[in-house]
Amino acid sequence: MTQRVYLVVLLLSLGLMRPLVTGIFMEKLASKKLCADDDCVYTISLARAEEDYNASDCRFINIKKGQLIYVYSKLVKEKDSGEFWAGSVYGEQYEDHMGTVGYFPSSLVSEQHVYQEANKTVPTTDIDFFCE
Questions:
Q1: Could you tell me which of 122, 116, 108 has the C-alpha nearest to residue 34?
Q2: Measured distance CA(26)–CA(126) in Å, rounded
Q3: Rg for the chain, CA atoms, rounded
Q4: Would you call 11 helix, strand, or coil by DSSP?
Q5: What is the band of 8 on the pLDDT scale with cuts at 50, 70, 90?
Q6: Closest-CA residue to 63 (of 37, 30, 85)
Q7: Which class for 65: exposed (0-12), middle (13-18), buried (19 or more C-beta within 10 A)?
Q8: Calpha distance 90→68 (Å, rounded)
Q9: What is the pLDDT of residues 46-98, one digit of tens each?
Q10: How far is CA 5 from the centre of its chain?
């Protein structure tokens, strides 16, 4: 009986020791970003997609022409890199994607409404490019 209890405790312990979140840290797209606040939590603007975009990896989001996107940060362009913004899709017809934040090329959207100026320069962190 005691051996069974030890075995159950051991198996439960091993199960609880597994990481609760699995994922991968991807290469950084930039070392700095522009935000409306120091924590990059406030919406900068609302943008409309002018073209479709298919995400190249898990750091990015798919967008469709005409789709509205909340913009939360704008990566500071570095040499030989694209110019990307971070945001999430907006609207009931895109409900299955709402809340998913990812990057997209800024050249494919037009800002419809600016809520706050992105005047805070904040360093990016590894978590900015983490993929689950």
A1: 122
A2: 8
A3: 20
A4: helix
A5: very low
A6: 85
A7: exposed
A8: 5
A9: 999 999 999 999 899 999 999 999 999 999 998 877 899 999 987 665 555 55
A10: 44
